[in-house]
Amino acid sequence: MHTLGTNLIVADDMLMVPVWHCPCVASYSQGTSRGGANIKEIVRRIDLWGLDMVFVIGGNGGNAAADAIQEEVEKQGVRCVVAGVPKSIDNDILLVDKCFGFDTAVEEAQRALLAAKVEASSGYKGLGIVKLMGRSSGFIAMQASMASGVVDVCLIPEVHFCIDKLRDHVKTILEKKGHCVVCVAEGAGQDILAAGTTATDASGNAILADVGCWLRDEFKKYLKGDADIKYIDPSYIIRSIPTTSNDRIYCKVLGQGAVHGAFAGYTGFTVGLVNTHYVYLPIPTIIQAPRKVNPKGRRWNRLKTAINQPDLC
């Protein structure tokens, strides 16, 4: 969260405790949180501090919190503009072409894939497995696989797979090429691993089973030691690095758009890029469901064609 002056506040997932101050820009940078926000307390602070504008930076959860704040300020009669800025490296915000941070995540994710390629190709029947972020949308895995040019199999949440067909396909690749690289999004295969489970985290998201470790163990059993398996999980590294130039510029454009909208008197909106145009979107519209990869769309099928991946379901 960053505060500018006395009547403007920018929140990242609604944590309201200052942790860092930069005198050169007269602002406060604060940490992030995940779920469990006390909306009534947030609105009480907004009223107490006399804030006129609140900018919420976040994904589906952050924007859902912004919508809840908007409803509460209206209910309590607090005069405050609430605006959102789409930040989700999973690129899963409905209607928005691209969230800032996504390009940076893809750039770093492909480094893990390239490392897996080196490890796999340097061993006897080397198999490199890389698990990337992507709870319900496989945009990072899909784009990084296409960008790296080294992936043989890509698994995403939107496309189900049969473990038997996957094992046979990987074995065929190993016999043909001598090595194989598998890229898997963290939300893939949950219909197999977590069927019937209802556990959720503080934000209400389903707690995912570890598909990466599961695949590693499955291939160890299937190949019976006749392969050199390397498992790489870059985890938060792909979102904790300096942003690319394009992401930095895009972020500034979105921030400026959010401020312009707020000063124009709009509230309960998120600024985003839609069909190459910068627009204002009602927050309730974009939080209805996560944006997902279209299994019948060009991008997914372009990747499948590039890596010769058959249907595995």
Order of helices and strands: EEEEHEHEHEHEHEHHEHEEHH
Helix content: 25-40%
**What is the strand tally?**
12
Q: What amount of the residues lies in strands?
A: 15-25%
Could you say which overall geometry the principal axes of the C-alpha atoms support?
elongated
Question: What's the average pLDDT?
Answer: 86
Strand order of the largest sheet: 1-2-5-6-11-12
Q: What radius of gyration results from the CA coordinates?
A: 22 Å
Helix count? 10
* Overall SS class: alpha/beta
Distance between the termini: 44 Å
Q: Uncertain spans, ≥5 residues at pLDDT below 50?
A: 1-11, 13-29
What this model shows, in words?
This protein has 313 residues and is of the alpha/beta class. The protein is 39% helix and 20% strand. The protein contains ten helices and twelve strands. It has helices spanning 39-49, 60-76, 102-121, 139-148, 163-177, 190-193, 211-223, 245-263, 283-286, 298-307; strands spanning 2-4, 8-12, 18-22, 27-30, 53-58, 81-86, 126-132, 153-155, 179-185, 228-232, 269-274, 277-282. The chain has a six-stranded mixed sheet, with helices on both faces. It has a four-stranded parallel sheet with strand order 8-9-7-10, with helices on both faces. A two-stranded antiparallel sheet has the order 3-4. A hairpin with a 3-residue loop joins strand 1 and strand 2. Helix 1 (39-49) crosses helix 2 (60-76), helix 3 crosses helix 4 and helix 4 crosses helix 10 (298-307). The protein is elongated, with a radius of gyration of 22 Å. The model is unreliable at 1-11 and 13-29 (pLDDT under 50).
